[in-house]
């Protein structure tokens, strides 16, 4: 690692809506300029920002450490990092539990939820003061995480800051919990502090002038170089070095994830590919009762070979099952988009456009070069769409089926309106 050993493990991106003031692209570009080899993204009760961070990490060469800040109902806050794929699954399941029991945009988690799902996770407690409450929380961390439990040492830029760090360090040593330095980054550069004040004002539904002590008390929440962090925490060399060791232990990458499709076979002794091929040729015989044209046969054979090589047969079978249910109930449905380029989708009844007649290209839908999973969009009539949704829940289970989540983002008009209000501009001027 170039320069002093330090990795920033506590970074909030703009996917912590109205809290973080910098994008993943800005954060990772800054980290690359500083010579950092890794950077953690720890948005609040969410993993929504790690996809953008994953892309930014690829572009900059700075390795992404997947993390999350958990704010519990009891007031306890901690950072968690999966060390491997099973641990990532535990974290995803934990967040799903918290969001399922809370309202929109919220997450309700108890300490018992965390303690039951912390296998393979590294935990860092975010403390306030070195008091009895902090001691209780550290004991909980030690009991649940074992030697993967840590205590964060972070400057608050308040009176007696150094005394606070000293007391926290002593408390952690007494309870046999390791300390680690973090900077609790909210933005990538000092000049982004102004925007951070604006989003804070929007979050509190007030103006920047009226924020008072609700705004950040200092402009120190920007990303710092490892050398600067060593200067600020010169009394805690072990806690600084431990950040790099934690980063090294967190080797999970989103590249390890792959689609896992449901099993749709009627006969468990027959493969999904064989089932799809049988349904395809049966559907082709129905679509072309006077005989399957030679060019259609060639297209179907080509598509089935490609589907087999990419192991996409289970996905086609799942979509086919949903469409067959809808049609069996007389629910109007229609596949659209790039799936219309597929002869297999046509003969299965998922789409209604014959690719053979329209000279469409299957590789626009599924390509071995791109190796991107297929995306079959199916529209269902609005009045009866709920019937299809409930059938999916019953068939696949509510713990394995879900509606797509949408992350709130600003568009230009909404951003201008809210920023204007935060700056105290009159409505007619905005």
Automatic annotation (TrEMBL):
<dbReference type="InterPro" id="IPR016195">
    <property type="entry name" value="Pol/histidinol_Pase-like"/>
</dbReference>
<dbReference type="GO" id="GO:0006281">
    <property type="term" value="P:DNA repair"/>
</dbReference>
<dbReference type="InterPro" id="IPR003141">
    <property type="entry name" value="Pol/His_phosphatase_N"/>
</dbReference>
<dbReference type="GO" id="GO:0006260">
    <property type="term" value="P:DNA replication"/>
</dbReference>
<keyword id="KW-0234">DNA repair</keyword>
<dbReference type="InterPro" id="IPR004805">
    <property type="entry name" value="DnaE2/DnaE/PolC"/>
</dbReference>
<feature type="domain" description="Polymerase/histidinol phosphatase N-terminal">
    <location>
        <begin position="7"/>
        <end position="74"/>
    </location>
</feature>
<keyword id="KW-0227">DNA damage</keyword>
<protein>
    <submittedName>
        <fullName>PHP domain-containing protein</fullName>
    </submittedName>
</protein>
<dbReference type="Pfam" id="PF02811">
    <property type="entry name" value="PHP"/>
</dbReference>
<dbReference type="Pfam" id="PF07733">
    <property type="entry name" value="DNA_pol3_alpha"/>
</dbReference>
<keyword id="KW-0963">Cytoplasm</keyword>
<dbReference type="InterPro" id="IPR011708">
    <property type="entry name" value="DNA_pol3_alpha_NTPase_dom"/>
</dbReference>
<dbReference type="InterPro" id="IPR004013">
    <property type="entry name" value="PHP_dom"/>
</dbReference>
<dbReference type="GO" id="GO:0008408">
    <property type="term" value="F:3'-5' exonuclease activity"/>
</dbReference>
